[in-house]
């Protein structure tokens, strides 16, 4: 069965797969092996456990995630600074410094994780969702085996 005529694959919603940090190609395998918040460092799988996608597309690929994380930080800081001003009306710079440092500290694990997931989902050319790969025994074109062909 080829990907073009396979209509039985269940399409996983992109937002649900993004939030759960699933593989962007099959949306079944986990990207991370650890939870977002915990006492251990966050660890990524090297490959998708379902479709065998290699997550690090090229050497230095994750450096771009720093720019995505920076964008997340700026958006969060502006949001919380405006929210603090609306709620308190204070002009004290120490209040804003305290609130924003707490926000940066508390959201850094979230930013680390989702900057990489966003990079994989929306900022990597040529990496698209392929619903037929989400099946349990999806054949790879020209391979004849389920999920063993490395990218």
TrEMBL record:
The keyword Transmembrane helix applies. InterPro entries: DUF983 (IPR009325). Keywords: Membrane, Transmembrane, Transmembrane helix. The chain crosses the membrane at residues 61-82, 94-112. The keyword Transmembrane applies. It holds the Pfam family DUF983. This is DUF983 domain-containing protein. It comes from Mucilaginibacter phyllosphaerae. The lineage of its organism: Bacteria, Pseudomonadati, Bacteroidota, Sphingobacteriia, Sphingobacteriales.
């Amino acid at each position: 069965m080829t990907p073009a005529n396979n209509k039985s694959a269940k399409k996983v919603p992109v937002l649900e797969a993004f939030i759960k940090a699933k593989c962007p190609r099959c949306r079944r395998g986990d990207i991370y092996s650890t939870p977002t918040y915990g006492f251990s460092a966050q660890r990524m799988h090297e490959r998708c456990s379902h479709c065998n996608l290699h997550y690090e597309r090229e050497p230095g690929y994750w450096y771009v995630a720093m720019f995505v994380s920076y964008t997340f930080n700026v958006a969060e800081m502006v949001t919380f600074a405006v929210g603090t001003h609306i709620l308190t009306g204070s002009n004290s710079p120490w209040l804003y410094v305290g609130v924003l440092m707490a926000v940066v500290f508390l959201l850094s694990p979230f930013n680390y994780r989702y900057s990489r997931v966003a990079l994989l989902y929306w900022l990597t050319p040529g990496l698209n969702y392929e619903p037929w790969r989400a099946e349990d025994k999806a054949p790879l074109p020209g391979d004849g085996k389920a999920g063993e062909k490395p990218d």
